[in-house]
Automatic annotation (TrEMBL):
Any single GO CC term annotated in Swiss-Prot or TrEMBL for this entry: THO complex part of transcription export complex
Coiled-coil blocks: none
Spans of repeat WD: 24-65, 68-110, 193-234
Keywords: Repeat, WD repeat
Organism the protein comes from: Hermetia illucens (Black soldier fly)
Record's protein name: THO complex subunit 3
GO biological process: mRNA export from nucleus
CDD domains: WD40 (cd00200)
Family: Belongs to the THOC3 family.
Family matches, as Gene3D superfamilies: YVTN repeat-like/Quinoprotein amine dehydrogenase
Length: 321
């Protein structure tokens, strides 16, 4: 039996009048990754066009601030520093990690790595950047020295990587539907969770630290108690592999997206549907704002004038009508 929560009604009502979308041209090709900085004033996107775009949020306006060039391969994922709002890290197929100082408007550091990078995560304490590559090697970079602190090769398909909120456990999802949990910095295996029957694609931690969620090729989203490492509920409203998930700043909402032509917004505590966002193409990246109910996302849209070209647009949902 699903216990209906008063908060569910309030949230459902809120989004009936806060469902306006703002759209911006961000890139000349597909957008792979979007993310807000810690104070919520900037939104970044990384693209197949090898650039990083940074936007500013001013009340209900999103303005393009700058475009950063330098990567010679696709920018596959980005991650901001958890407490320093001007520092942004990017992972690219060009075998580098770059750290950008967006206020100074330049690349602050380039770290060379041993493969084509596809995912990146910055530890909440700011001390380490972890980056994964196509050969399932995860590299740990000391952000004070910009030197490689450790490398760990896995003998299975590593899909996404994440830290817990205290930066002492490192999580990765794999092709066998499992979540591997390693201690950090010792990188010793602590637990293996059998999360899904299909490939486990994405993982995200709730900002409050209570939950984490995983998305899978079986079209399911599992919500886990971060302390007990127990699955507490499963969301099953999508029909296609879940590519991307994001918790709202207060942990109350969980957005999930796939090749379905909608983004699902769920109530974390009950799993009930709060709202959804209609889209015209597969969605590969979603990110909630760190202080308010605004969801940034990017789809595999085509240019309205030339269907052979990627639109390269970024969208933000949740503005008042």
């Amino acid at each position: 039996m699903v216990i209906h929560n008063k908060n569910v009604d309030e949230l459902q009502t809120y989004f009936k009048t806060h469902n306006k979308i703002k759209e911006q041209k961000a890139h000349t090709s597909k957008v792979h990754s979007v993310g807000w900085n810690c104070d919520g004033r900037r939104l970044a996107s990384g693209s197949f066009d090898k650039t990083v775009a940074v936007f500013t949020l001013d009340r209900e306006r999103i303005n393009k601030d700058s475009t950063f060039r330098g990567h010679t391969g696709s920018v596959d994922q980005l991650c901001w520093h958890a407490s320093m709002p001007d520092l942004l890290s990017t992972a690219s197929g060009d075998k580098t990690v770059r750290i950008w100082d967006v206020r100074a408007g330049k690349c602050a550091t380039i770290i060379n790595t041993n493969g084509e990078n596809i995912n990146i995560t910055w530890s909440p304490d700011g001390k380490t950047i972890a980056v994964g590559n196509k050969e399932d090697l995860v590299t740990f970079i000391d952000t004070r020295t910009h030197k490689i602190r450790a490398e760990k090769q896995f003998n299975f398909e590593v899909n996404e990587i994440a830290w817990n909120n205290t930066s002492d456990l490192f999580f990765l999802t794999n092709g066998q539907g499992c979540v591997h949990i390693l201690s950090y910095p010792s990188l010793e295996l602590q637990h293996v969770l059998k999360a899904h029957p299909g490939t486990c694609i994405c993982i995200e931690f709730d900002p409050t630290g209570k939950y984490f969620a995983t998305g899978s090729a079986d079209a399911l989203v599992s919500v886990w108690d971060a302390e007990e490492l127990a699955c507490v509920r499963v969301l099953s409203r999508l029909d296609w592999p879940v590519r991307t998930i994001s918790f709202s700043y207060d942990g109350k909402l969980l957005a999930s997206a796939s090749e379905d032509l909608l983004i699902d917004i769920a109530h974390t505590e009950t799993g009930e549907k709060i709202s959804d966002i209609s889209v015209d193409a597969a969605t590969f990246t979603v990110a909630w704002h760190p202080k308010q109910y605004l969801l940034a996302y990017a789809c595999d849209d085509k240019d309205s004038c030339d269907r052979r070209r990627d639109a390269g647009n970024l969208k933000v949902w949740g503005f008042s009508e």
